[in-house]
């Protein structure tokens, strides 16, 4: 009777152990516990032995290395046998094949005592769990690679649009997103969020626009997502997205041709700055009176063609590359322009220096940057206007463009907004521009602290409704106003003016 009681007790213990180790093993399949190394470590403790997981080449993937017979390992990884057992006086060894999506692995377990049924079952089932985990990890990695490749492709399309290569952009997009860029015009939006949640916001942008838009994680600003959409519905979808999140903002451009994507992007960034002060956290670039629209169109185009004529001798591709890079380089810092274009900042600087040399000028001068910016943005419309410089007036100067009554009235009204401030920020702003936007040099000329100069310039931004401390269209318009009223000397483009 005693023997039978002991035997019954032994069977109950063994039966009870089965579910216990099985439940522990299944815990490793939960999302929080999916780690092959942890499973191998658990197996080592469960069978009280050493465990190694290695691939066919002998590389240790998890556990501790165990001396193995190479021929036996080869037989298992080649599929000739599924498992093997081996023993000596010192140890007992069991090997089990573990299938992997890309290659076969071997799970080896070594212990001092023989493998009983429980230990053998634990090893077999653990091999199955490891197989599931490896397959899941490979699928996850493949999905991640696919998402990364798709994201990189979207960025490449945006970079092509930024340099006005719409034909190549359409060809690249057609493979994965047929019809996405079939329209001739589009709006650009910039969604700003905390960088930590940008990936999630980017996915929501894709969902909100139903993938009918080009959604790109901005390579220059960690918290920005750029959305280029030909569809009218995208703006409303993105505004709805912003409404659902307390800490994200949206800036949008007016509709532009695809060739002017870089211009539209600049507009969206400007609108984003305004969105931070709006209750609904969204803003669309305001169509205000731009100085170039107050100039005689034919005269402006003639002047532009003449200013940029030194670049006409270059091959078409080289010329387009230099113009597009310089246009972005004048709107943003060299570092950010490089990130947007997918090139190094040294490449951006080298291209801009080449344009400087061809135009015979110096971009360190803010007035020069302003004038070249005016020419470059006018140049985009030359082909659309079917303009030929055969009609150009070779004697036309920048002063002729700025001396028109409409331009002068606009400039006087704009700068006159600053006259009510007793601190005289207009003088500070003029001196700061003349100093190339350098607060320290302006402070020396004015006899004040550099921080005071910055405060005066910053205080002028809401009055003029333009960003000044960041280079771009807003700043260049204010510089043009100073040139138009004669507060600053006209720059000299040595080859032309």
TrEMBL record:
InterPro entries: CdaR-like_regulators (IPR051448), PucR_C-HTH_dom (IPR025736), PucR_C-HTH_sf (IPR042070). Residues 1-12 have a biased composition (Basic and acidic residues). It comes from the Bacteria. Residues 335-377, 427-469 form the PucR C-terminal helix-turn-helix domain. Residues 1-21 are annotated as: Disordered. This is PucR family transcriptional regulator.
